[in-house]
Design goal:
Helices cover 38% and strands 14% of the residues. A hairpin with an 8-residue loop joins β15 and β16. The protein is globular and about 90 Å long. It has 23 helices and 17 strands. It is α/β, with parallel strands linked by helices. The protein has a 5-stranded mixed β-sheet with strand order 10-9-13-11-12. Strands 2-1-3-4 form a 4-stranded mixed β-sheet, covered by helices on one side.
Length: 599
């Protein structure tokens, strides 16, 4: 007889919860269950990320449908006593709604999930990513079995074409068309590649999918291999994603043992195998030609196109490259039909999109929403609104390759065409919300500094252009620029877009050009008035001590690196010598009483 458990405890073991101490929580939970004689009644299941990353460690208990957030080791004994013994929720750790502060009674009541449509993430937070049996129980490898036993390769490609799926890596190229190109290529050897070299600041979509549902990506790659005539696949994952790599290795070994990888799959003459290749963390290797160079063991540098990878790719053979999210959509489309997927989203942007929602918003984490949802719906409903009730200022979408969307465009649909008209791109899915305390010039400088560091240096427009733009932005932030610098920034940005070899250089100016377009007055205030409206750029600020608030503790004076903070004889209150102040802001950072004000 099967060993049925009374309760199942779903424990998020994605990277976010791991960093918050989930393994210590699990150890304490196991010990407490053993101590209270409940080990035979409760099953603890390790899952991937369920999405609400800042609430970890997170536990869901079924069939009770009770969720706990930010669980600490010290809470475990009382939680086990209250919930598992007495049958009532442990209130101090209950999942709460970020906007109202009210306890979330069920998933259906949770505002964070109200606008979501989970296709790519349907198994994340539900199955154990290290147990192939759990993936199979959720219809895993059903799509593969269907296409191998009932469909021709062209029927598979026609299904993907009919779904309207476009690549989720940033460019939005039609996936079915890319598969068709590889199918039509004449070669005895072909390759398929999963691009998991996710490098955008604040982006963690691909990492979470690989950590939480690796078999899903693998199944899609096998399906593509069958549809296009490829017998070998590579998953290119950055070395920083150690947990994802570990779970991929486990999944590949399990798939081989179950007959989903190897020779004569499902009794057919089709054979396919997968291999993980680990990248060294170079952002430029997210560009497909640089990625292929790295897979071959060479330095990751972009190559001119044409020829395109589907013509001449890995080791000179036709190759198709898709990103993690694109692949993770395929099994759902095959199981449910192209029409079902095409019915979601907009006319030209079908399906759903996964975003890494971060920044000054109450609910941060991984979300999946229908294409065409407005930015307002994401910020105010899924995200629970801007933190501390401050006004929304802008959202940076698409990372270093993307652009800023200002408050006046909050109702813009998030799809490929609408964002392009605003000077932004959908990108891979990073979405950073900013309030009125963010300086848009400083934001542009941050992303450009990232591009300077990550440029491979092969082509002059990117190598020199990123550096020149960054230094000009630094001059603006530090009060050394003039109005002619704005014209130079725009001309240089457009030049880079036209002349850079790869997408890194072509898109690097996007954050600069979009912030200049929507926040030009902020640039002008830095240059003409030597003022930062958001009070972020410290070289343009002055610091003073409010003597009414100052307690005379002297922390500011002791930490001042240039000794410009004093008190008069017989006085306990401090003051700053303005002529000698370097405006480093140390006094503001160390004051515990908010006595140092910046102007």
């Amino acid at each position: 007889m099967a060993d049925f458990k009374r309760l199942h405890c779903f424990l998020c073991t994605g990277s976010g919860c791991v960093s918050a101490g989930v393994w210590q929580v699990r150890e304490a939970l196991e010990a407490e269950l053993e101590k209270q004689g409940l080990s035979d009644e409760v099953e603890i299941i390790n899952t991937g990320c369920a999405g609400l990353c800042e609430r970890g460690p997170r536990i869901g208990i079924w069939p009770d449908e009770i969720y706990y957030q930010n669980v600490e080791v010290k809470q475990i004994p009382e939680l086990v006593t209250e919930h598992f013994l007495k049958g009532r929720p442990y209130e101090p750790a209950r999942l709460t709604d970020a906007s109202s502060g009210e306890i979330v009674r069920s998933e259906q009541d949770f505002q964070f999930l109200s606008k979501q449509r989970r296709i790519v993430l349907e198994n994340c937070g539900v199955v154990n990513p290290e147990a192939i049996e759990e993936y199979i129980a959720r219809d895993g490898y059903m799509a593969l079995g269907t296409v191998l036993s009932e469909w021709s390769p062209q029927q598979v490609i026609d299904c993907i074409k009919g779904s309207g799926l476009r690549g989720r890596g940033g460019a939005g190229f039609p996936t079915g068309m890319k598969w068709q190109l590889l199918h039509d290529a004449q070669s005895d050897v072909k390759y398929v590649v999963c691009n998991a070299d996710e490098g955008d600041p604040g982006a963690f979509m691909d990492r979470s999918v690989l950590e939480g549902d690796p078999h899903r990506v693998m199944e899609a790659m096998i399906i593509q291999g069958y549809a296009t005539g490829a017998s070998k696949g590579f998953i290119y994952c950055r070395a920083e994603y150690a947990l994802a790599i570990t779970r991929l290795d486990i999944a590949i070994n399990q798939a081989r043992a179950y007959g989903f990888l190897g020779d004569n799959l499902f009794g057919t003459d089709f054979s396919f195998d997968l291999e993980v290749r680990v990248g060294a963390g170079a952002f430029v290797c997210g560009e497909e030609t640089a990625l292929m160079q790295s897979v071959e063991g060479k330095r990751g540098q972009p190559m001119p196109r044409p020829p395109f990878p589907t013509q001449k790719g890995l080791w000179g053979k036709p190759t198709s490259i898709n990103n993690v999210e694109t692949y993770a959509t395929i099994p759902w489309i095959v199981r449910n039909g192209a029409e079902a997927y095409a019915a979601i989203g907009t006319e030209r942007s079908k399906g759903t999109k996964v975003f890494a929602l971060a920044g000054q918003v109450r609910n941060t984490g991984l979300i999946e929403v229908p294409m065409g949802i407005t930015l307002r719906e994401i910020v105010e409903q899924v995200g629970g609104g801007v933190m501390n009730d401050r006004p929304f200022k802008a959202a940076q979408i698409g990372g270093p390759s993307g652009g800023c969307i200002p408050a006046e465009h909050l109702d813009t649909p998030l799809d490929y065409d609408s964002l392009t008209s605003l000077g932004a791109i959908l990108g891979s899915g990073g979405l950073i919300v900013m309030d009125d305390t963010s300086c848009m010039v400083d934001v542009a400088r941050f992303f450009m500094e990232f591009c300077v560091d990550e440029s491979c240096g092969k082509c002059a427009p990117c190598r020199a252009g990123t550096r020149q733009i960054y230094e000009t932005l630094a001059d603006i932030c530090e009060g050394r620029a003039d109005m002619e610098d704005l014209d130079r920034l725009e001309k240089l940005g457009l030049l880079m877009k036209d002349m850079s070899l790869c997408a890194l250089g072509q898109t690097a100016p996007n954050p600069v050009l979009s912030t200049m377009r929507h926040f030009r007055s902020e640039y002008e205030a830095h240059i003409l008035n030597h003022k930062c409206p958001a009070k972020v750029c410290r070289k343009l600020l002055s610091f003073e001590i409010d003597r009414e608030i100052c307690t005379g503790c002297g922390v500011c004076a002791r930490n001042c690196p240039v000794d410009t903070i004093f008190k008069e004889d017989g006085e306990r209150k401090y003051y700053i010598v303005q002529d000698a102040c370097t405006r480093c802001g140390t006094c503001f950072d160390v004051c515990n009483f908010n006595a140092v004000v910046k102007e």
